[in-house]
Design goal:
Layout (H helix, E strand, L loop, with lengths): L14 H20 L3 E2 L5 E3 H8 L4 H4 L4 E2 L11 E3 L4 H10 L9 E10 L11 E10 L5 H17 L4 E7 L6 H12 L8 H9 L13 H5 L10 H17 L3 E3 L11 E9 L10 E5 L3 H4 L7 E7 H10 L12 E5 L5 H13 L4 E3 L6 H10 L4 E5 L7 E6 L4 E6 L3 H13 L6
Parallel strand pairs: 1-5, 7-8, 12-13, 12-14
Antiparallel strand pairs: 2-4, 3-4, 5-6, 6-11, 7-9, 9-10, 10-11, 14-15, 15-16
Helix pairs in contact: 1-5, 5-9
The protein binds histidyl-adenosine monophosphate (HAM).
């Protein structure tokens, strides 16, 4: 085994996977652009306070999963930082910092990149993973809630995933949740002796989390617990009914899931997650999100509603693989420029440089090896077209070989770019001109 390995819970995205990620990101970016979203970025780390305040102190993410950043020895700033476990808190921090409430509302942004959670690694759960995140800040909904859920549903379909369903719930707001939490505690307290230790502690600190406990023995207890649906205050109930009416009218399918609570305290009202039918386990959510009407204020801004969701790119790719869909191949297969004189690397490099300058994907074989070996190399990497520089170059000609069609013909240097462009288009359409 090699001495150095990628850290536990992380993985290298080799070219095949990175290309597949780029393709998924491109689908998500195209789609969100059509809905009026613009990309932005925030730092990979923030003051830990941004996360601690934003998510609530008694959440797994703050108690156990923050990657806290140790500053260098000479550091005088004495700030506490942490790597971002998710993007919403950083985006909201930026919204407040840059006075974005003066822009036309809602501010609709996307962010894509790695997130970090110090969790026990397992299949589908990494310590560094990728999200494509979508946020609309400054619209109280419920129409925009429906639009975002519809957008997410459309993404999974465009990515080629079949059978993805939304789970939907309303978790109320500051007006009605306290009474529900009290009802939940009143139900669970007499059962306290049966609860696993973690859940028993949660009963006092964050009782809502009992609803999405990972313990199997909690399942029947949760099933019989009071449901939030009966405890929503009239404005929350109305918001939820209207959201469902919007989704129904748009033809977006969803499963009402009263036990869906999400792992972060910032959520209010709308909460949702996406799963593939038959793959509904703990590490299998393909994305999730919801409304966070108190978060902007919590991070120092004026009270402003917001809603968004995060797509788990790693899990979408795993699900595509499980479904037997090949990750999309890198788009351009380069044309390979080879030459009869092994020593004449300059000619090969110059021809490839000219082709690239003209916008084609091309690489030169720069090893000083025999023509036959150069040709073998091109075939092995799956090239369709090869340009062979030989003696005819003195007369302004090269040979163009089509490795798929098995044909070869002389082409004038002056026509080379146009000729290769035509051949590349034919290959893209599966026609090798045979
Ligand atoms: P989340 O549900 O914590 O929500 O994460 C969103 C998605 O990221 C998950 O559904 C999953 O696909 C993926 N994910 C989460 N943790 C891991 C992990 N350890 N390994 C691999 N994939 C993972 C959020 O992060 C919220 N910021 C979503 C949101 C945006 N809410 C409002 N706006």
């Amino acid at each position: 085994m090699p001495r150095y390995q990628s850290p536990r819970g992380t993985r290298d995205l080799l070219p095949v996977e990175r290309s597949a990620f780029l393709r998924l990101e491109a689908i998500a970016r195209d789609l969100t652009t059509r809905y009026g979203y613009q990309p932005m970025e925030t730092p990979l780390f923030e003051q830990s306070d941004v996360f601690e305040r934003g998510y609530g102190e008694v959440t797994d993410i703050v108690e156990k999963e923050l990657f806290r950043v140790q500053a260098g020895r000479g550091d005088q700033e004495r700030e506490r930082w942490a790597l971002r476990p998710e993007p919403t808190a950083g985006i909201v921090r930026a919204y407040v910092q840059h006075g974005m409430q003066t822009l036309p509302q809602p501010v609709k942004v996307t962010l894509t990149g790695p997130m970090f959670r110090y969790d026990r690694p397992q299949a589908g759960r990494y310590r560094q993973f990728w999200q494509f995140d979508v946020e609309a800040i400054g619209d109280a909904g419920p129409a925009i809630d429906a639009e975002i859920i519809e957008l997410a549903t459309r993404f999974y379909a465009l990515a080629g995933l079949q059978g993805v369903r939304a789970r939907l719930n309303s978790i109320g707001d500051a007006a009605c949740r306290p009474a529900y939490v009290a009802a939940l505690q009143a139900y669970f307290r007499p059962l306290s002796a049966q609860l696993p230790p973690v859940e028993r502690a949660r009963l006092e600190t964050n009782p809502l989390r009992l609803l999405d406990s990972k313990e199997a023995l909690m399942e029947p207890l949760v099933a019989a617990a009071p449901s939030i649906a009966q405890h929503l205050c009239p404005p929350c109930a109305e918001h939820f009914a209207s959201l469902r009416a919007h989704l129904d009218a748009l033809g977006v399918a969803y499963d009402l899931t009263p036990a869906l609570v999400r792992g972060l305290d910032y959520y209010t009202r709308t909460a949702f997650e996406f799963y593939r039918v038959g793959a509904e386990g703990q590490q299998q959510a393909l994305g999730g999100g919801g409304r966070y009407d108190g978060l902007v204020e919590l991070l120092g801004g004026k009270p402003t509603p917001g809603i968004g969701f995060g797509l788990g790119l790693d899990r979408v790719l795993l699900a595509l693989q499980a479904q037997g869909v090949e990750p999309p191949a890198p788009t351009a297969v380069p044309i390979v420029v080879i030459g009869a004189d092994p020593e004449d690397t300059l000619t090969r490099l110059r021809v490839a440089t000219d082709l690239r300058a003209a916008g084609l994907a091309a690489r030169a074989d720069l090893k000083r090896r025999q023509l036959g070996k150069q040709l073998e190399g091109a075939a092995r990497e799956g090239a369709h077209l090869v340009v062979i520089c030989g003696d005819e170059l003195a007369d302004g000609q090269v040979q163009v070989r089509d490795l798929q069609a098995g044909t070869q013909r002389p082409v004038n240097m002056a026509d080379l770019v146009r000729d290769l462009e035509r051949a590349t288009v034919q290959h893209r359409h599966g026609n090798t001109g045979r």
